[in-house]
Amino acid sequence: MNNHMGGRAVVGCLTLFELTEHNMYRLLALAIAASTALAATTAVAAPERVRGTVAAVSGNTLTVRTTLGQNVPVLFTGKTRYPKVAPSSLDHLDPGAYIGTATKSIGDQLIAHEVVVFPLSLKGTSEGHYAWDRLTDTTLSAGSTTPSAMTNGPASGTVDSAMTNGTVSSANASGGAKQITVIYKGGKQVILVPPTAPIVTYQLGERAELTAGTAVFVNGVSHDSMVTANAVAVGTDGVKPPI
Q1: Order of strands across the sheet with 8-11?
Q2: What is the per-residue burial (b if ≥16 Cβ within 10 Å, else e) of 108-118?
Q3: What are the backbone angles phi and psi of residue 93, rounded to the nearest 5°?
Q4: Which end of the chain is more exposed for a tag (fewer CB within 10 A), N or C?
């Protein structure tokens, strides 16, 4: 039964505004996870991640100038979502937080390159520990690249990485760093987050924020050499999208 309070419609315990926001975050979660699902169900679509800056936007096509200096066309669809990246901090890496982090390995220790603190409505997004890409090593002041542990990744000056998405079960701070234990279905990882690691979160964004020069991270699928975007993470106010 619908009620009205202060000019705002109420459905159960949620206002329509809150319900709409919840649904938008749910759609965003589906978009972020979509490339993984497609890769598991079809042989012709493969996960594709594109990092760079906006070179141009025309119609339903975004051109991304990649970090390697290539121009990559990316198609939008009606289901493409545009999460906006905002700054977060070590203070938000507490028990109960749902996070995603790309890491490198030093011996048995996982070191975070970057951490995404997901809104609670996105809890469960791409849960697990799996191979990721070769990444710039944010733990080094020289900024060389290194593979990470979202578990995909040799290229000179780069490192292989792995991705861990899960819930923080414990956290201990020391010397400006934080050691967190991240649990997920079927396992857990102990990860050291150094003070050099960027920590960000997602907010609701929109396509209009894709302007020339804006930093973006495209999570999509490729088919017949064309990339279709499930989600385009948009950097704002100097904050870059997650790696």
Answers
A1: 2-5, 8-11, 14-15
A2: eebbbbbbbbb
A3: -95, 65
A4: N
